[in-house]
């Protein structure tokens, strides 16, 4: 039987939008009016590589049992009791309310695990707004925008921690699980040919006609290092203006879904065409979802001026993909196999960096060096005082910086910290999350 996941929260925090986003189609009615959802809705969804039963519940409100709101609350509480996991949704834009805190207290007393979801975090300050949710005592908040689809990959990762893989027992160690790898890129870039090359067999139909692969195809295998891999070859993603036929819309959706479920993405780039907006859009989506990325520069054997081709690619990456600075590039020919043996080692290295956590002591020694090298700027005539940093999670590496008025830190100083972290700890090509929390260190010396 599929695991059951309930989405709960007070009215109008975006539960139904999140439900529709996870299911992949519009089932629940969405409106700005609170209380639109009164009855529980359920649907089958694919989350974190698992088929699950997803429940959309009515809004939690403080009310007497005989009222409509009271009956809605009772229905939501019943959904929690029958669930294997709860997604507790708050509205990060409007901040925590007494109702949020009351329901968080109730959830902490329930036997079901909870993933805290901070919705409506689109925009530059969205990540900071989510930090307030730490006060609820439900662990790390997952910052998402159900409306825009931001953060769905990290939500899948959080859910995955509580659900067993379909073909594995709950007790299996993470090290034994296959690395989840997606191959993405434009149509006819050579994705299926590359998959066949990695597998050593003609598993996928290939040819010069673009769009031969219509759906995502999952393949499990063991690479030369002896590591298990679950590899998904996706349908090519075209420019939005060209996605007209229903079948092609389904192909594009399958590509995006595979990217959300993977841990590392191989972005296949046709070396003869170079890295254009389509490839940059896919790389940015992978970064937005917190995925490690490796570029497979395919058809390298057909390139005449290799130095100029490399230089153009490096310039494009430097100017248009700074958030993945140092992304590994592996020139190869999927057709002949030349250079393909270097691809999986690069993938494994990117995966290891993506999983890496830095200890608090080492992290703060680096942090103090960065502050000494370039003190924080003045904002409105007052200096921002950053006190300490922690790394609460990896996958991707996430740094939380605490300090007085930390949330007002200018964007250029944020980039300075991220780039310094990437350089100091060798995190090339890995998405880095920087979150700022405006509070003081309770262990700092009194001034």
Automatic annotation (TrEMBL):
Residues involved in GTP 2 binding: 185-192, 233-237, 298-301
Question: Where, if anywhere, are coiled coils annotated?
Answer: none
Listed CDD domains: EngA1, EngA2
Print the keywords alphabetically: GTP-binding, Nucleotide-binding, Repeat, Ribosome biogenesis
Positions bound to GTP 1 = 9-16, 56-60, 119-122
Q: What biological process terms from GO does the record include?
A: ribosome biogenesis
Pfam families, per the entry: KH_dom-like, MMR_HSR1
Q: Does the keyword Hydrolase apply?
A: no
InterPro entries (alphabetical): AAA+_ATPase, G_ENGA, GTP-bd, GTPase_Der, KH_dom-like, KH_dom-like_a/b, P-loop_NTPase, Small_GTP-bd
Task: Note whether Transmembrane helix occurs among the keywords.
Answer: no
HAMAP family attached here?
Answer: GTPase_Der (MF_00195)
Q: How does it assemble?
A: Associates with the 50S ribosomal subunit.
Q: What protein family does this chain belong to?
A: Belongs to the TRAFAC class TrmE-Era-EngA-EngB-Septin-like GTPase superfamily. EngA (Der) GTPase family.
Q: What does this protein do?
A: GTPase that plays an essential role in the late steps of ribosome biogenesis.
What this protein is called in its record is GTPase Der
**Which organism does this sequence originate in?**
Siccirubricoccus deserti
């Amino acid at each position: 039987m599929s695991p059951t996941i309930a989405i709960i929260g007070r009215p109008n925090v975006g539960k139904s939008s999140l439900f529709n986003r996870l299911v992949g189609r519009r089932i629940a009615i969405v409106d700005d009016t609170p209380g639109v959802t009164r009855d529980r809705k359920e649907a089958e969804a694919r989350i974190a590589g698992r088929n699950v039963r997803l429940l959309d519940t009515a809004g939690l409100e403080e009310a007497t049992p005989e009222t409509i709101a009271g009956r809605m609350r009772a229905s939501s509480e019943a959904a929690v009791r029958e669930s294997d996991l709860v997604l507790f949704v708050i509205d990060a834009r409007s901040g925590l309310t007494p109702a949020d805190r009351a329901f968080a207290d109730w959830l902490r007393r329930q036997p079901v695990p909870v993933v805290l979801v901070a919705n409506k975090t689109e925009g530059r300050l969205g990540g900071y707004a989510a930090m307030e949710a730490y006060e609820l005592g439900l662990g790390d908040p997952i910052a998402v925008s159900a409306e825009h689809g931001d953060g769905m990959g990290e939500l899948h990762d959080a859910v995955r921690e509580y659900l067993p893989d379909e073909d594995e027992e709950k007790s299996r160690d993470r090290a034994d699980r296959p690395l989840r790898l997606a191959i993405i890129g434009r149509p006819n870039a050579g994705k299926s040919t590359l998959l066949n090359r990695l597998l050593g067999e003609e598993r996928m139909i290939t040819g010069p006609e673009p769009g031969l692969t219509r759906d995502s195809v999952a393949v499990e295998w063991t690479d030369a290092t002896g590591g298990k891999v679950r590899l998904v070859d996706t349908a090519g993603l075209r420019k939005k203006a060209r996605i007209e036929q229903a079948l092609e819309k389904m192909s594009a959706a399958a590509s995006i879904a595979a990217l959300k479920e993977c841990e590392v993405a191989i972005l296949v780039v046709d070396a003869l065409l170079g890295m254009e907006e389509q490839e940059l859009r896919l790389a940015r989506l992978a970064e937005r979802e917190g995925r490690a990325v490796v570029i497979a520069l395919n058809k390298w054997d057909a390139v005449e001026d290799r130095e100029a081709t490399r230089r153009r690619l490096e310039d494009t990456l430097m100017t248009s993909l700074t958030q993945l600075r140092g992304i590994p590039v592996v020139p190869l020919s999927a057709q002949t196999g030349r250079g393909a043996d270097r691809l999986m080692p690069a993938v494994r290295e990117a995966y290891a960096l993506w999983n890496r956590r830095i200890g608090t002591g080492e992290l703060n020694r680096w942090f103090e060096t960065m502050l000494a090298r370039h003190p924080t700027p003045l904002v409105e005539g007052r200096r921002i005082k950053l006190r300490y940093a922690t790394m609460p999670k990896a996958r991707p590496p996430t740094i939380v910086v605490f300090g007085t008025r930390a949330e007002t830190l200018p964007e250029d100083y944020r980039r300075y910290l991220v780039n310094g972290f990437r350089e100091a700890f060798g995190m090339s090509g890995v998405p880095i999350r920087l979150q700022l929390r405006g509070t003081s260190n309770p262990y700092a010396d009194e001034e």
